[in-house]
Write a structure and sequence with these properties.
By secondary structure, this protein is an alpha+beta fold. The protein has helices at about 90, 265-280, 315-330, 330-335, 345-360, 370-390, 405-430, 430-445, 450-460, 465-475, and strands spanning about 30-40, 45-55, 60-70, 100-105, 110-115, 120-130, 135-145, 155, 160, 165-170, 170, 175, 195-200, 205-210, 210-220, 220-230, 235-240, 245-250, 250-260, 290-295, 300-305, 305-310, 335-340, 450. The protein is built from ten helices and 24 strands. It has a seven-stranded mixed β-sheet with strand order 4-7-2-1-13-16-15, with no helix packed on it. Strands 18-19-20-22-21 form a five-stranded mixed β-sheet.
Amino acid sequence: MRKTLAILSCAVLLLPFFAFFSACKSASAKDEYQIVAEYFPEEGRLQAEMTVHAVNTTDNVLSELKFGLYPNVYREGAKNKPVSPLFESACFYDGESYGGIQIDTLTGGEWRVCGEDENILAVSLAKPLYPDERAVVSLSFTLTLSKNNHRLGIGEHAVNLTHFYPVLCHRTDSGFAEYPFTACGDPFVSDCADYTVSMTVPEEYTLVYGGAGSSVTQNGKATYNIVAKDVRDVAFVLGKEFKRESMQAGGVQVEYYYMQDEDAQSTLSAAASALAFFSETFTPYEEERYTVAETDFLFGGMEYSALALISNGLHKSERLDAVIHETAHQWWYYKVGSNQAEESWQDEGLSEYSVALFYGAHPEYGKTYRDRVALAEKSYRSYFSVYSQLGGADTRMSRPLNTFKGEYEYRSIAYDKGVVLFDKLREGAGERKFFSALKKYAARFDKKQATRADLVACFEDVGAHTEGLFSSFLDGLCVI
Protein backbone atom coordinates (compact mmCIF):
# COMPACT_ATOMS: atom_id res chain seq x y z
CA MET A 1 0.00 0.00 0.00
CA ARG A 2 1.22 3.47 -0.83
CA LYS A 3 1.23 5.24 2.54
CA THR A 4 0.87 8.83 1.35
CA LEU A 5 -1.80 10.38 3.57
CA ALA A 6 -4.69 12.36 2.12
CA ILE A 7 -7.74 14.06 3.71
CA LEU A 8 -10.76 13.25 1.56
CA SER A 9 -13.23 16.02 1.29
CA CYS A 10 -34.25 -9.26 -5.88
CA ALA A 11 -32.38 -11.90 -4.05
CA VAL A 12 -28.99 -13.42 -4.60
CA LEU A 13 -28.42 -14.69 -8.13
CA LEU A 14 -28.61 -18.42 -7.58
CA LEU A 15 -28.02 -19.77 -11.08
CA PRO A 16 -24.24 -19.73 -11.58
CA PHE A 17 -22.89 -19.35 -15.08
CA PHE A 18 -20.16 -21.88 -14.40
CA ALA A 19 -19.89 -25.60 -13.67
CA PHE A 20 -18.21 -26.73 -10.51
CA PHE A 21 -14.52 -27.52 -10.72
CA SER A 22 -13.42 -31.12 -10.18
CA ALA A 23 -12.86 -32.05 -6.55
CA CYS A 24 -9.81 -34.12 -7.38
CA LYS A 25 -6.28 -32.81 -7.02
CA SER A 26 -5.22 -30.46 -9.81
CA ALA A 27 -1.72 -30.34 -11.16
CA SER A 28 -1.20 -26.86 -9.73
CA ALA A 29 -2.66 -27.76 -6.29
CA LYS A 30 -4.46 -24.45 -5.86
CA ASP A 31 -7.60 -23.59 -3.96
CA GLU A 32 -10.66 -22.76 -6.04
CA TYR A 33 -13.33 -20.19 -5.17
CA GLN A 34 -16.70 -19.85 -6.88
CA ILE A 35 -18.61 -16.73 -5.79
CA VAL A 36 -22.09 -15.61 -6.86
CA ALA A 37 -23.04 -12.24 -5.37
CA GLU A 38 -25.39 -9.30 -5.76
CA TYR A 39 -25.05 -5.78 -4.38
CA PHE A 40 -28.10 -3.90 -3.07
CA PRO A 41 -27.16 -0.21 -2.78
CA GLU A 42 -30.32 0.91 -0.99
CA GLU A 43 -29.40 -1.28 1.95
CA GLY A 44 -25.61 -1.15 1.60
CA ARG A 45 -25.68 -4.94 1.49
CA LEU A 46 -24.03 -7.71 -0.51
CA GLN A 47 -25.65 -11.17 -0.61
CA ALA A 48 -23.39 -13.98 -1.72
CA GLU A 49 -22.98 -17.70 -2.08
CA MET A 50 -19.51 -19.21 -2.19
CA THR A 51 -18.10 -22.67 -2.77
CA VAL A 52 -14.45 -23.35 -1.92
CA HIS A 53 -12.42 -26.34 -3.00
CA ALA A 54 -9.59 -26.24 -0.45
CA VAL A 55 -6.44 -28.29 -1.01
CA ASN A 56 -4.24 -29.49 1.81
CA THR A 57 -0.84 -28.14 0.76
CA THR A 58 0.81 -29.10 4.05
CA ASP A 59 2.49 -32.34 5.03
CA ASN A 60 0.03 -32.88 7.89
CA VAL A 61 -3.49 -34.24 8.16
CA LEU A 62 -6.00 -31.42 8.69
CA SER A 63 -9.15 -31.72 10.76
CA GLU A 64 -10.37 -28.19 10.13
CA LEU A 65 -10.11 -25.23 7.77
CA LYS A 66 -9.77 -21.60 8.81
CA PHE A 67 -10.89 -18.54 6.89
CA GLY A 68 -10.12 -14.90 7.58
CA LEU A 69 -13.17 -12.68 8.15
CA TYR A 70 -11.64 -9.27 7.44
CA PRO A 71 -15.01 -7.44 7.15
CA ASN A 72 -15.61 -7.93 10.89
CA VAL A 73 -13.11 -5.20 11.69
CA TYR A 74 -15.90 -2.77 10.71
CA ARG A 75 -18.47 -4.22 13.08
CA GLU A 76 -19.68 -2.39 16.16
CA GLY A 77 -17.68 -3.44 19.20
CA ALA A 78 -14.65 -4.65 17.25
CA LYS A 79 -11.50 -4.78 19.37
CA ASN A 80 -9.23 -3.83 16.47
CA LYS A 81 -10.19 -0.70 14.55
CA PRO A 82 -9.78 -0.28 10.79
CA VAL A 83 -7.92 3.02 11.28
CA SER A 84 -6.20 4.78 14.15
CA PRO A 85 -8.02 7.57 16.05
CA LEU A 86 -5.94 10.11 14.10
CA PHE A 87 -7.74 9.24 10.87
CA GLU A 88 -11.20 8.24 12.07
CA SER A 89 -12.93 11.46 11.03
CA ALA A 90 -11.45 11.36 7.54
CA CYS A 91 -12.31 7.67 7.17
CA PHE A 92 -15.86 7.75 8.57
CA TYR A 93 -16.99 10.86 6.72
CA ASP A 94 -20.60 10.64 7.92
CA GLY A 95 -19.88 9.85 11.56
CA GLU A 96 -20.06 6.46 13.22
CA SER A 97 -20.94 3.69 10.79
CA TYR A 98 -20.68 -0.05 11.16
CA GLY A 99 -20.68 -3.13 8.97
CA GLY A 100 -19.53 -6.73 9.10
CA ILE A 101 -20.03 -10.19 7.67
CA GLN A 102 -22.62 -12.75 8.76
CA ILE A 103 -22.39 -16.43 7.81
CA ASP A 104 -25.94 -17.48 6.98
CA THR A 105 -25.51 -21.14 6.03
CA LEU A 106 -22.57 -23.52 5.64
CA THR A 107 -22.20 -27.12 4.48
CA GLY A 108 -19.05 -29.21 4.55
CA GLY A 109 -18.47 -29.23 8.29
CA GLU A 110 -19.38 -27.79 11.67
CA TRP A 111 -18.50 -24.11 11.86
CA ARG A 112 -17.92 -21.34 14.37
CA VAL A 113 -16.74 -17.74 14.32
CA CYS A 114 -13.73 -17.30 16.59
CA GLY A 115 -10.28 -15.72 16.65
CA GLU A 116 -8.91 -12.82 18.62
CA ASP A 117 -11.56 -10.42 17.30
CA GLU A 118 -14.21 -12.59 15.59
CA ASN A 119 -11.85 -12.53 12.63
CA ILE A 120 -11.75 -16.28 11.94
CA LEU A 121 -14.28 -18.72 10.51
CA ALA A 122 -13.27 -22.23 11.63
CA VAL A 123 -14.81 -25.25 9.87
CA SER A 124 -14.40 -28.68 11.50
CA LEU A 125 -14.35 -31.20 8.68
CA ALA A 126 -16.43 -34.37 8.72
CA LYS A 127 -13.39 -36.48 7.85
CA PRO A 128 -9.62 -35.97 7.93
CA LEU A 129 -8.09 -34.07 5.02
CA TYR A 130 -4.85 -35.72 3.97
CA PRO A 131 -2.01 -33.97 2.11
CA ASP A 132 -2.93 -33.09 -1.51
CA GLU A 133 -6.59 -33.96 -0.94
CA ARG A 134 -9.41 -31.44 -1.28
CA ALA A 135 -12.36 -30.53 0.90
CA VAL A 136 -15.44 -28.72 -0.36
CA VAL A 137 -17.14 -26.06 1.75
CA SER A 138 -20.22 -24.18 0.54
CA LEU A 139 -21.65 -21.21 2.36
CA SER A 140 -23.84 -18.15 2.02
CA PHE A 141 -23.10 -14.84 3.68
CA THR A 142 -24.43 -11.33 4.12
CA LEU A 143 -22.00 -8.45 3.96
CA THR A 144 -23.09 -5.14 5.45
CA LEU A 145 -21.03 -2.14 4.38
CA SER A 146 -20.31 0.86 6.55
CA LYS A 147 -19.88 4.38 5.19
CA ASN A 148 -16.14 4.90 5.00
CA ASN A 149 -13.30 5.96 2.72
CA HIS A 150 -11.32 2.79 3.23
CA ARG A 151 -10.69 -0.64 1.68
CA LEU A 152 -14.17 -2.02 2.28
CA GLY A 153 -17.15 0.29 2.43
CA ILE A 154 -19.42 2.85 0.82
CA GLY A 155 -17.26 5.86 0.05
CA GLU A 156 -18.38 9.34 -0.84
CA HIS A 157 -18.21 8.60 -4.57
CA ALA A 158 -17.65 4.86 -4.96
CA VAL A 159 -17.96 1.50 -3.22
CA ASN A 160 -14.80 -0.46 -2.42
CA LEU A 161 -15.23 -4.24 -2.23
CA THR A 162 -11.91 -5.71 -1.12
CA HIS A 163 -11.35 -8.62 1.28
CA PHE A 164 -15.13 -8.90 1.26
CA TYR A 165 -15.40 -12.71 1.38
CA PRO A 166 -14.09 -15.38 3.76
CA VAL A 167 -10.58 -16.20 2.52
CA LEU A 168 -8.60 -19.28 3.48
CA CYS A 169 -5.83 -18.48 5.90
CA HIS A 170 -2.27 -19.11 4.79
CA ARG A 171 -1.27 -22.68 5.63
CA THR A 172 2.05 -23.81 6.99
CA ASP A 173 3.14 -27.13 8.46
CA SER A 174 2.61 -25.46 11.85
CA GLY A 175 -1.05 -24.81 11.09
CA PHE A 176 -3.17 -21.94 9.84
CA ALA A 177 -1.72 -18.45 10.22
CA GLU A 178 -4.20 -16.14 11.99
CA TYR A 179 -3.49 -12.43 11.68
CA PRO A 180 -5.83 -9.99 13.42
CA PHE A 181 -6.41 -6.65 11.75
CA THR A 182 -4.04 -3.76 12.40
CA ALA A 183 -4.73 -0.09 11.69
CA CYS A 184 -1.35 0.40 10.01
CA GLY A 185 0.01 -1.81 7.30
CA ASP A 186 -1.65 -4.59 5.34
CA PRO A 187 -2.29 -7.62 7.59
CA PHE A 188 -3.23 -9.87 4.67
CA VAL A 189 -1.32 -13.08 3.96
CA SER A 190 -2.93 -15.20 1.27
CA ASP A 191 -2.01 -17.91 -1.18
CA CYS A 192 -2.78 -17.81 -4.89
CA ALA A 193 -6.01 -19.48 -5.97
CA ASP A 194 -8.38 -19.74 -8.94
CA TYR A 195 -11.54 -17.62 -8.82
CA THR A 196 -14.77 -17.62 -10.77
CA VAL A 197 -17.02 -14.74 -9.78
CA SER A 198 -20.50 -13.65 -10.85
CA MET A 199 -21.23 -10.16 -9.49
CA THR A 200 -24.60 -8.50 -10.11
CA VAL A 201 -25.08 -4.75 -9.62
CA PRO A 202 -27.62 -2.14 -10.73
CA GLU A 203 -26.93 -1.29 -14.38
CA GLU A 204 -26.06 2.33 -13.59
CA TYR A 205 -22.95 1.14 -11.75
CA THR A 206 -19.64 0.34 -13.39
CA LEU A 207 -17.81 -2.60 -11.84
CA VAL A 208 -14.03 -2.14 -11.95
CA TYR A 209 -11.92 -5.28 -11.60
CA GLY A 210 -8.58 -6.79 -12.57
CA GLY A 211 -8.14 -9.69 -14.96
CA ALA A 212 -10.52 -10.99 -17.60
CA GLY A 213 -14.29 -10.75 -17.61
CA SER A 214 -17.49 -9.94 -19.46
CA SER A 215 -20.91 -8.56 -18.58
CA VAL A 216 -24.56 -8.85 -19.57
CA THR A 217 -27.37 -6.42 -18.78
CA GLN A 218 -30.96 -7.47 -18.20
CA ASN A 219 -33.93 -6.08 -16.29
CA GLY A 220 -32.02 -3.08 -14.96
CA LYS A 221 -29.12 -5.14 -13.62
CA ALA A 222 -25.64 -5.88 -14.93
CA THR A 223 -24.00 -9.20 -14.18
CA TYR A 224 -20.22 -9.36 -14.49
CA ASN A 225 -18.66 -12.78 -15.01
CA ILE A 226 -14.99 -12.80 -14.03
CA VAL A 227 -12.43 -15.58 -14.27
CA ALA A 228 -9.16 -14.98 -12.41
CA LYS A 229 -6.60 -17.78 -12.37
CA ASP A 230 -3.69 -18.07 -9.95
CA VAL A 231 -4.30 -14.77 -8.13
CA ARG A 232 -3.92 -13.73 -4.49
CA ASP A 233 -7.35 -12.11 -4.27
CA VAL A 234 -10.27 -10.66 -6.16
CA ALA A 235 -11.33 -7.08 -5.49
CA PHE A 236 -13.80 -4.64 -7.02
CA VAL A 237 -14.75 -0.97 -7.09
CA LEU A 238 -18.31 0.14 -7.91
CA GLY A 239 -19.24 3.61 -9.08
CA LYS A 240 -21.71 5.65 -11.13
CA GLU A 241 -19.28 8.38 -12.14
CA PHE A 242 -16.40 6.49 -13.74
CA LYS A 243 -14.72 7.55 -16.95
CA ARG A 244 -12.25 5.27 -18.69
CA GLU A 245 -8.97 5.64 -20.57
CA SER A 246 -6.79 2.83 -21.88
CA MET A 247 -3.55 2.12 -23.71
CA GLN A 248 -1.21 -0.76 -24.49
CA ALA A 249 2.06 -1.48 -22.67
CA GLY A 250 4.06 -4.34 -24.13
CA GLY A 251 0.97 -6.26 -25.13
CA VAL A 252 -0.85 -5.59 -21.84
CA GLN A 253 -4.10 -3.64 -21.86
CA VAL A 254 -3.73 -0.93 -19.20
CA GLU A 255 -7.03 0.68 -18.15
CA TYR A 256 -7.64 3.66 -15.90
CA TYR A 257 -11.05 4.33 -14.33
CA TYR A 258 -11.30 7.77 -12.78
CA MET A 259 -13.75 10.35 -11.46
CA GLN A 260 -11.89 13.54 -10.52
CA ASP A 261 -8.45 13.26 -12.13
CA GLU A 262 -7.96 16.32 -14.34
CA ASP A 263 -4.92 14.82 -16.05
CA ALA A 264 -6.03 11.24 -16.54
CA GLN A 265 -3.76 10.68 -19.53
CA SER A 266 -0.67 11.43 -17.45
CA THR A 267 -1.80 8.99 -14.76
CA LEU A 268 -2.53 6.29 -17.32
CA SER A 269 0.81 6.89 -19.05
CA ALA A 270 2.67 6.54 -15.74
CA ALA A 271 0.94 3.23 -15.03
CA ALA A 272 1.76 1.90 -18.49
CA SER A 273 5.37 3.12 -18.36
CA ALA A 274 5.88 1.60 -14.92
CA LEU A 275 4.40 -1.71 -16.03
CA ALA A 276 6.72 -1.82 -19.04
CA PHE A 277 9.78 -0.79 -17.00
CA PHE A 278 9.24 -3.33 -14.24
CA SER A 279 8.54 -6.05 -16.82
CA GLU A 280 11.96 -5.40 -18.31
CA THR A 281 13.77 -4.87 -14.99
CA PHE A 282 12.31 -7.82 -13.05
CA THR A 283 10.24 -10.39 -14.96
CA PRO A 284 7.59 -10.03 -17.71
CA TYR A 285 4.06 -9.16 -16.63
CA GLU A 286 1.96 -12.14 -17.69
CA GLU A 287 -1.57 -10.79 -17.35
CA GLU A 288 -3.42 -9.52 -20.41
CA ARG A 289 -4.99 -6.64 -18.49
CA TYR A 290 -3.93 -4.30 -15.66
CA THR A 291 -6.43 -1.90 -14.11
CA VAL A 292 -6.03 1.25 -12.02
CA ALA A 293 -9.04 2.78 -10.26
CA GLU A 294 -9.31 6.22 -8.68
CA THR A 295 -11.59 5.87 -5.66
CA ASP A 296 -12.40 7.04 -2.15
CA PHE A 297 -9.42 5.91 -0.14
CA LEU A 298 -7.93 7.44 2.97
CA PHE A 299 -4.32 6.66 2.06
CA GLY A 300 -2.41 6.93 -1.20
CA GLY A 301 -3.23 3.59 -2.76
CA MET A 302 -3.68 -0.14 -2.31
CA GLU A 303 -2.60 -3.15 -4.35
CA TYR A 304 -4.57 -6.19 -5.48
CA SER A 305 -4.10 -8.83 -8.15
CA ALA A 306 -4.00 -7.02 -11.53
CA LEU A 307 -5.75 -4.06 -9.86
CA ALA A 308 -4.54 -0.94 -8.07
CA LEU A 309 -6.66 1.52 -6.07
CA ILE A 310 -5.52 5.15 -6.05
CA SER A 311 -6.89 7.81 -3.70
CA ASN A 312 -8.94 10.60 -5.25
CA GLY A 313 -7.50 13.00 -2.66
CA LEU A 314 -3.97 13.19 -4.08
CA HIS A 315 -2.19 15.99 -5.88
CA LYS A 316 -0.66 15.13 -9.27
CA SER A 317 2.86 14.39 -8.01
CA GLU A 318 1.54 12.24 -5.16
CA ARG A 319 -0.80 10.46 -7.56
CA LEU A 320 2.04 9.55 -9.92
CA ASP A 321 4.14 8.27 -7.00
CA ALA A 322 1.19 6.15 -5.82
CA VAL A 323 0.49 4.72 -9.29
CA ILE A 324 4.13 3.70 -9.76
CA HIS A 325 4.35 2.23 -6.24
CA GLU A 326 1.15 0.21 -6.63
CA THR A 327 2.26 -1.01 -10.03
CA ALA A 328 5.50 -2.25 -8.46
CA HIS A 329 3.31 -4.27 -6.09
CA GLN A 330 2.21 -6.32 -9.08
CA TRP A 331 5.65 -7.93 -8.63
CA TRP A 332 6.20 -7.44 -4.89
CA TYR A 333 2.87 -8.72 -3.58
CA TYR A 334 0.89 -10.25 -6.42
CA LYS A 335 3.63 -12.22 -8.18
CA VAL A 336 5.98 -12.67 -5.21
CA GLY A 337 4.06 -13.05 -1.97
CA SER A 338 5.53 -12.45 1.47
CA ASN A 339 4.32 -12.22 5.04
CA GLN A 340 3.03 -8.65 5.16
CA ALA A 341 1.91 -9.09 8.75
CA GLU A 342 5.40 -9.89 10.06
CA GLU A 343 7.82 -8.71 7.35
CA SER A 344 6.14 -5.62 5.89
CA TRP A 345 9.46 -4.24 4.59
CA GLN A 346 9.76 -7.17 2.20
CA ASP A 347 7.09 -5.93 -0.21
CA GLU A 348 6.66 -2.29 0.84
CA GLY A 349 10.36 -1.43 1.00
CA LEU A 350 11.03 -3.13 -2.32
CA SER A 351 8.02 -1.47 -3.98
CA GLU A 352 9.05 1.95 -2.73
CA TYR A 353 12.60 1.32 -3.88
CA SER A 354 11.21 0.33 -7.27
CA VAL A 355 9.73 3.83 -7.53
CA ALA A 356 13.26 5.24 -7.19
CA LEU A 357 14.46 2.86 -9.91
CA PHE A 358 11.65 4.01 -12.20
CA TYR A 359 12.41 7.70 -11.78
CA GLY A 360 16.10 6.99 -12.30
CA ALA A 361 15.27 5.52 -15.72
CA HIS A 362 12.69 8.20 -16.63
CA PRO A 363 14.21 11.68 -16.24
CA GLU A 364 11.21 13.21 -18.03
CA TYR A 365 9.34 13.08 -14.70
CA GLY A 366 11.81 15.53 -13.13
CA LYS A 367 12.81 13.20 -10.28
CA THR A 368 16.03 11.26 -9.88
CA TYR A 369 16.99 7.98 -8.27
CA ARG A 370 19.47 9.65 -5.96
CA ASP A 371 16.94 12.29 -4.86
CA ARG A 372 14.41 9.60 -3.93
CA VAL A 373 16.96 7.66 -1.90
CA ALA A 374 18.17 10.84 -0.18
CA LEU A 375 14.59 11.78 0.70
CA ALA A 376 13.96 8.35 2.22
CA GLU A 377 17.16 8.56 4.26
CA LYS A 378 16.29 12.04 5.48
CA SER A 379 12.78 10.94 6.46
CA TYR A 380 14.10 7.92 8.34
CA ARG A 381 16.66 10.01 10.22
CA SER A 382 13.93 12.44 11.23
CA TYR A 383 11.91 9.56 12.65
CA PHE A 384 14.96 8.24 14.50
CA SER A 385 15.70 11.66 15.98
CA VAL A 386 12.13 12.22 17.16
CA TYR A 387 11.61 8.77 18.67
CA SER A 388 15.03 8.72 20.30
CA GLN A 389 14.03 11.81 22.25
CA LEU A 390 10.72 10.21 23.20
CA GLY A 391 12.28 7.26 24.95
CA GLY A 392 13.92 5.22 22.24
CA ALA A 393 13.44 4.28 18.60
CA ASP A 394 12.73 0.67 17.70
CA THR A 395 14.72 0.38 14.47
CA ARG A 396 13.96 -3.28 13.75
CA MET A 397 12.45 -3.83 10.32
CA SER A 398 11.67 -7.50 10.86
CA ARG A 399 8.72 -7.40 13.29
CA PRO A 400 4.92 -7.81 13.37
CA LEU A 401 2.63 -4.96 12.38
CA ASN A 402 1.08 -4.79 15.85
CA THR A 403 4.44 -3.67 17.30
CA PHE A 404 4.43 -0.39 15.38
CA LYS A 405 3.26 2.60 17.42
CA GLY A 406 1.46 4.17 14.48
CA GLU A 407 1.49 5.12 10.82
CA TYR A 408 4.55 7.40 11.12
CA GLU A 409 6.77 4.72 12.61
CA TYR A 410 5.47 2.11 10.17
CA ARG A 411 6.10 4.34 7.17
CA SER A 412 9.59 5.27 8.38
CA ILE A 413 10.65 1.67 8.99
CA ALA A 414 8.95 -0.34 6.23
CA TYR A 415 9.18 2.24 3.44
CA ASP A 416 11.97 4.75 4.11
CA LYS A 417 14.45 2.41 5.77
CA GLY A 418 13.50 -0.18 3.19
CA VAL A 419 14.61 2.14 0.39
CA VAL A 420 17.92 2.76 2.14
CA LEU A 421 18.42 -1.00 2.63
CA PHE A 422 18.02 -1.81 -1.05
CA ASP A 423 20.19 1.12 -2.07
CA LYS A 424 22.98 -0.21 0.17
CA LEU A 425 22.48 -3.70 -1.24
CA ARG A 426 22.88 -2.32 -4.75
CA GLU A 427 26.01 -0.46 -3.73
CA GLY A 428 27.52 -3.49 -1.99
CA ALA A 429 26.58 -6.16 -4.52
CA GLY A 430 27.21 -4.14 -7.65
CA GLU A 431 24.80 -3.46 -10.52
CA ARG A 432 24.99 -6.85 -12.22
CA LYS A 433 24.61 -9.02 -9.13
CA PHE A 434 21.96 -6.77 -7.58
CA PHE A 435 19.60 -6.93 -10.53
CA SER A 436 20.39 -10.59 -11.15
CA ALA A 437 19.31 -11.32 -7.57
CA LEU A 438 16.02 -9.44 -7.97
CA LYS A 439 15.28 -11.19 -11.26
CA LYS A 440 15.97 -14.52 -9.60
CA TYR A 441 13.75 -13.59 -6.65
CA ALA A 442 10.88 -12.58 -8.95
CA ALA A 443 11.15 -15.75 -11.05
CA ARG A 444 11.82 -18.29 -8.30
CA PHE A 445 8.91 -17.21 -6.10
CA ASP A 446 6.40 -16.31 -8.79
CA LYS A 447 2.94 -16.93 -7.26
CA LYS A 448 4.54 -18.35 -4.12
CA GLN A 449 5.30 -17.08 -0.61
CA ALA A 450 8.88 -15.93 -0.02
CA THR A 451 10.49 -15.56 3.38
CA ARG A 452 13.22 -13.20 4.50
CA ALA A 453 15.71 -16.07 4.11
CA ASP A 454 14.49 -16.71 0.56
CA LEU A 455 15.30 -13.16 -0.49
CA VAL A 456 18.73 -13.31 1.16
CA ALA A 457 19.40 -16.63 -0.60
CA CYS A 458 18.76 -15.08 -4.01
CA PHE A 459 21.57 -12.61 -3.37
CA GLU A 460 23.84 -15.37 -2.11
CA ASP A 461 23.11 -17.45 -5.21
CA VAL A 462 24.49 -14.77 -7.53
CA GLY A 463 27.62 -14.34 -5.45
CA ALA A 464 26.50 -11.29 -3.49
CA HIS A 465 27.25 -12.14 0.15
CA THR A 466 24.87 -9.70 1.78
CA GLU A 467 23.46 -11.66 4.72
CA GLY A 468 25.29 -9.45 7.20
CA LEU A 469 23.93 -6.29 5.60
CA PHE A 470 20.39 -7.68 5.64
CA SER A 471 20.71 -8.66 9.31
CA SER A 472 22.10 -5.30 10.38
CA PHE A 473 19.12 -3.49 8.86
CA LEU A 474 16.36 -5.98 9.64
CA ASP A 475 17.40 -6.61 13.22
CA GLY A 476 17.96 -2.90 13.98
CA LEU A 477 21.70 -3.12 14.52
CA CYS A 478 22.95 -0.55 11.99
CA VAL A 479 23.04 3.21 12.45
CA ILE A 480 22.00 5.27 9.45
